[in-house]
Amino acid sequence: MPAGIPSADFKAESSSMTVFATHPYDNMTTKHRIIQVGSLAGSPSANKNLADRYDVVELWKFPDRKAALAEHGKGITAVVTSANFGANAELINALPDLKAICSWGVGYETIDVEAAHKRGVQVSNTPDVLTDCVADLAWGLLIAGARRMGQGERFVRAGQWGQVHGSIPLGLRVSGKKLGIVGLGRIGEAIAKRGTGFDMEVRYHNRRKRDDIDYGYEASLVDLAKWADFLIVATVGGPSTRHLVNQPVLEALGPKGIIVNIARGPVIDETALVAALEAGKLGCAALDVFEHEPKVPEALTKSDNAVVLPHIGSATLETRLAMENLMLENLQAYFDTGRVITPVE
Ligand code: 8YV
Questions:
Q1: Which residue spans adopt a coiled-coil conformation according to this UniProt entry (predicted)?
Q2: How far apart, in whole angstroms, are the C-alpha atoms of residue 63 and residue 35?
Q3: 174 lines ligand 1 (CB under 6 A)
Q4: pLDDT in tens, 148-182
Q5: Residue 31 CA, ligand 1 centroid: distance in Å
Q6: Ligand 1 site, residue 105, Cβ cutoff 6 A
Q7: Separation of 82 CA from ligand 1 center, angstroms?
Q8: Rg of the Cα trace of the chain?
Q9: Helix axis angle, 131-146 relative to 317-337, nearest 10°?
Q10: What are the helix (H) ranges across 254-316?
Q11: Contact of 299 with 278, CB cutoff 8 Å
Q12: Helix 317-337 to helix 46-53 angle, to the nearest 10 degrees?
């Protein structure tokens, strides 16, 4: 069946289709059938917009995914997913007519891009639109960790202010310190830019030195950690960066050092992180992501030297809407032109 042509039973269903007067897709007379791998509940209106515009096979609602793919996969040319749900080779290869995978989010380590490209399937993500919010959160985490904001808040909420002798322990100054960035991509760069506003010297570690940028480059991550007061992790996820931040790196950062992670949990060896914190060899960990989300080690949830957030780097109304729109634009561009707008190369 050619790309985008609905199946016979789809035509019967589409007769009850709603047409929206102000909708950009007004002239659609039939809805394309797509597979949505998981519910995009973290987006303001992605589930609704997908359901309004397309004939959606909601894969997560089927108890037997393999059987669902076998039954509904034929003729499906586009899949919607996110980093959370991914698209592995099994899913890709179960869809003989697949042409495009449109993901909601920038990270795509759970999508088998190689398997997709081998089959000529385009993959799109949502870069740029979340850069500022993720960078903002990295700074929020850093300041929260250095100034013990979580601990202070718990102290006030517990009614301890004025009740017990003293206050919370002293924090660390943020302004004017040395900032190391692990992974100077789009998000790393936005974090670095904010660092100059805090009068910080910024250096970074990447696989390769960037010639288009003036920040100092450290070829060795351990050397960067030794130099830095604070280390912010902003790399891609996946096998190439798994446990890049390990025991030697954490110990090089040291007892007053703060590690921030807004990238992917597995970039840090979490067992080594907990051990370093417990032994006082690392000052503080301020984390938005974890190795086995949504599981967070109790050693971290109980520690006043840790700040823990539930993976909310992009979770603002504006950014989640922008991610949603870009994902929808990619999907519709594929149906209209055969090409997604922001392809993963
Ligand atoms: C999302 C993210 O929460 O874009 C990413 O890679 O990590 C976040 O913006 C995630 O995509 C949800 O699966």
A1: none
A2: 15
A3: no
A4: 999 999 999 999 999 877 899 999 999 999 999 99
A5: 27
A6: yes
A7: 7
A8: 23
A9: 150
A10: 270-278, 298-301
A11: yes
A12: 20
Mean residue pLDDT across the chain: 92
Q: How many CB atoms lie within 10 A of CB 345?
A: 5
pLDDT tier at 29, thresholds 50, 70, 90:
low
- Tell me whether residue 23 is one of the annotated catalytic residues: no
Instruction: Assess whether 242 carries a catalytic annotation.
Output: no
Token pair belonging to 42: 């973290």
pTM tops 0.85, yes or no: yes
Cα of 313 to ligand 1 centre, how many Å? 8
Give the ligand 1 atom nearest the CA of 130.
9
The atom of ligand 1 lying closest to the CA of 85 is 13
In tens, the pLDDT along 222-237 reads 999 999 999 999 999 9
**Consecutive H or E run containing 93:** helix 89-93
Question: How does strand 258-261 pair with strand 284-287?
Answer: parallel
In the chain, DSSP assigns E strands to 33-36, 55-58, 78-82, 100-104, 122-124, 178-182, 201-205, 216-217, 230-233, 258-261, 284-287, 306-308
